[in-house]
Amino acid sequence: MSNQEAETVERQYWIDMSNALKRLEKNEDFKLVIKEGYFKDKAVNGVSLLATDYVIENNLRTKVMEGLIAVSHLEDHLATIHNMAASAEADNEEVGE
């Protein structure tokens, strides 16, 4: 496979991933479970836990922070998919695909 073919395959990968993610983002279950339940509720609850006496006294802040970091990683992954697809689509326009 040539370098150009490999780049075409990679661009298509990101476009396909973004299209799939767009479909997921329209799904009411995805909105409830991931957007509301995970990104919003879990993050807010985790931030709230950081200030509780129990968490502080039992040195559990690191564990709570790891949960918040996990939320951030998934949000970043989804944003990366959209950003890479936008870049791939722009590259496709440049090369006339």
Kindly describe this structure:
With 97 residues, the chain is mainly alpha-helical. The chain has one domain (3-95). The protein is 90% helix and 0% strand. Helix 1 (3-26) packs across helix 4 (61-95). It is elongated. The relative contact order is 0.14.
Query: Segments where pLDDT lies below 50 for 5+ residues?
Result: none
How many strands in all? 0
Total helical elements:
4
Helix content: over 70%
* H-E string: HHHH
Query: What sort of overall outline do the alpha carbons produce when their principal axes are compared?
Result: elongated
DSSP strand content: under 5%
The average pLDDT is 95
Structural class estimated from helices and strands: mainly alpha
The end-to-end distance, rounded to whole angstroms, is: 18 Å
Radius of gyration: 19 Å
Number of structural domains: 1
Largest sheet: none
Summary, kept brief:
The chain has one domain. Helix content is 90%, strand content 0%. The protein contains 4 helices and no strands.
What are the SSEs and their pairings?
Elements: H1 3-26, H2 28-50, H3 53-57, H4 61-95
What labels would you give this structure?
97 residues; 0% strand; single chain; 90% helix; mainly alpha
